[in-house]
Amino acid sequence: MSDFVIIPDSTSDFTADLRERFGVPEVIKGLIYFPDGHTEAADLDWEKYTPEEYYKSMTDKTSLYTTATAHAGDIKDTFEKYLKEGKDIITVSLSAALSGTNALNEMVKKELLEKYPDRKIFCVDTNGYSAAIALLIIGACELKAQGATVEEVAKYFEDNKFKVHQMGTMDDLFFLVKKGRISNFKAFFGSLIGINTVADFNRGGLPQVLHKFKGKKDAFAAVVEYIKETIIDAENQIIIVAHTNRFAAAQKLAEIVKAELNPKEIIIKDVGMSCGANIGPGLCAAYYFGKELTEDMVYEEKLMQEIAENLKKKG
Fold first, then answer.
1. Same domain, 195 and 302
2. Which of 9, 55, 114, 148 could bridge across to 28 with cysteines, CB 3.0–4.6 Å?
3. Residue 9 in contact with residue 104, Cβ under 8 Å?
């Protein structure tokens, strides 16, 4: 059985602490185009910038960042380094609905397998982003540590990617709407002052708004009820609470989730530069494994509507 590596890109937010803990050797860094026109590789580990600096620079809504995939040559060099060592590769990217990274990985794979026909490369489209990808990688690394083959771990990604949920609040949809990174926003858009929208992933790889609430209290109450109804085996899970310059809210959500669900571990993380450029400040969400997302989100929308009605009755 050959050895293999799991190589995500910077949209996974798989920071140095997680890479060391779970044995991921490196990430492929996408590009960030700054408002002043210069370009840098995504600073995944916040070595040059702080999250606060990054997100506060967007608050005027005129300082916009854009993103791009890594250069094909950089991807090729990274893959080839491990292929030369006789290792197979699973490369993990964000939703193809949001980026061309997976298509680029497939192109590089085709070229390299002609040169290394005895090796295997699996390109995984996770249908998610940020902490959703990180959760899948954690599970895959744990499976690898138990002796699973590269084929079994690649199948794990495919079997579980529609079981990852994002549930939390977004108090500013400006960036997601402007970048086309959210589904069905028109049904909820308008005057959003003091409004917290809640969303989950859909199977197309986009966050889909399920409801909107006035104030964090009702929004968090709805979030937790939704998680309780959709999560599976909470006590044996690592839940990630990710945020974009909403640390106090993330702490509060983590406390509530801990008290209500008692998961094995809760990790609070900043959303990295790559995803944060398109989300902007205002996200605070829990990422976890649960019931498989339905094709048309009918179940999820109905569930959130019922939760909202029950909260309204309670006053």
1. yes
2. 9
3. no
Domain total in the chain: 2
* Torsion sign over Cα 50, 175, 206, 198: positive
For residues 125 and 38, state if they share a domain: yes
Q: In what order do the strands lie in the sheet with 238-243?
A: 207-214, 195-201, 164-170, 283-289, 238-243, 265-270
Q: Does the structure show a pLDDT above 90 at 91? A: yes
- Which of 134, 161, 188 is a domain's end point? 161
Angle CA 271–277–280, to nearest 5: 75
CA angle 183, 186, 240 (to 5 degrees): 40
Q: Note down the domain range covering 290.
A: 162-314
List pLDDT tens digits, range 150-172.
999 999 999 999 999 999 988 76
Q: What is the CATH number of the domain that holds 232?
A: 3.30.1180.10
Closest listed residue to residue 288, CA positions, set 122, 121, 132, 91: 132
287 neighbors 166 (Cβ within 8 angstroms): yes
- Supply φ then ψ for residue 164, to 5 degrees: -90, 130
Choice among 27-36, 100-109, 188-197 with the minimum mean pLDDT: 188-197
- Structure confidence at residue 177 as a pLDDT band (50, 70, 90): low
Of 141, 161, 181, the residue that ends a domain is 161
Q: Do the Cβ atoms of 102 and 125 come closer than 8 Å?
A: yes
Q: Write out pLDDT tens, residues 257-300.
A: 999 999 999 999 999 999 999 888 989 999 999 999 999 999 99
